[in-house]
Amino acid sequence: MAIEKKVQVIQRETIRPSSPTPHHLSTFKLSLLDQFSPDMYVPLILFYPPNDSNGVLHGLDHLLTFAEKTQHLKKTLSQTLNKFYPFAGRITSRFASIIECNDDGIEFVEAKFDCSMSKMFKRPDTRLLKQLLGKAGPKCEEAGIGHLLLVQATLFQCGGMAIGVSISHKVADAATLLTFLKSWSLHCCVENDHEYHPQFGAASLLPPTDLTICSDPPIIQTLRGEKCITSRFVFEAENIEVLQRKSASEIVKLPTRVEAVTALIWKSAMDAYMISSNKATFLLNRAANIRPRTAPPLPENFAGNLFAVVSTMLNNNESTDLQVLVAKLRTSLEDFKKYFPKELDVGEVKRALEGLCQFMIKDDEFELFGCSSWCRFPFYDIDFGWGKPAWATNCPLAFKNSIIMMDTPTPDGGGGIEVCLTLEEEEMALVQSNQELLAFAALNPSVV
């Protein structure tokens, strides 16, 4: 049964960099990939259980109150924004190619929830999870022309706390969000963070362009859809191992965890659409981090949007057998690697984005799916001084036909994968009763 209680906002505050941004940094150029990213927030919620007697922060060997924690979070967030100064700025218009680094600040919300964390963990409710992120939603124009970063700290009845972070996709991808959280959490635990400094410069590699070439950035097309439902599926490590063996073939002798899970989720969704609609083609767009693929590789703290789209197509007269799908996923990734330039070719990237944009306009001919894997990103290591999170989720990152994956919160890493799948109502009802999927994944089980 869903929890009916609502999160209550205590106060909203604007957090600005602790030092003014220097004049020579007052404007920040967006890259081509930043421009083509949608007006949406990339969310993450980190859940921290109640303090224990071992909680230590700056030598304070006692239980910290919620007020003490939020005060320290705000102070260190202000310091962290000195390095991540574009996040405290504003993009003046939808088609602008710069951020005005005017120190207008980010929004920090303090809230409380009259419910224990353990009760919420029993059957997580996506609608409730959204309340832990303030006003940020999957599609929000403010992500393009308002606050670029939103933070909400929510106190649970049991004394636990959730920290919800929503960052505009115009300035960051998942890797950049991780770099920011690492830096902020280190500021919380030590006086100065000398380790995680962002490297800005994506616009020098991929300069911005005139966005009037396309009525909407291409990814924005996937945000459309009415009456969508998000369901959470959890694959335990032992089930993934069985799935990997089942989906192996002569072409792909050992599928990765993500390949095997992606194939089964995509198959389940396509099978549902084949019953409910007459679309001729299915297209899966996967986000791929390009930092390690350039020559030389870009550092992991290179900030901005540095991902490419790996597309895999299936006609409705083709087999949706798992071995076939995994082979297609692997082939499209290998083709992507083969043709990925050793040096970023601006003209080639621009042509690819324009072509993708024009192709995606023909949405009456095919069904488009978007897939992003956050597996192996160490979000479970984010420690603000009172321990590591019991659960990390980006489940509110939901748009039509989206497949979002994260690691499960097992003590040893475990190898499990949590999937948040968003489909329209009719298709989701079919997926939730798909016995092949339910043989490997549990539908919205308890977090712990």
From TrEMBL:
Gene3D superfamilies: Chloramphenicol acetyltransferase-like domain. One of its GO terms (molecular function) is acyltransferase activity. InterPro entries: CAT-like_dom_sf. Keywords: Acyltransferase, Transferase. Belongs to the plant acyltransferase family. This is BAHD acyltransferase. It comes from Rhamnella rubrinervis.
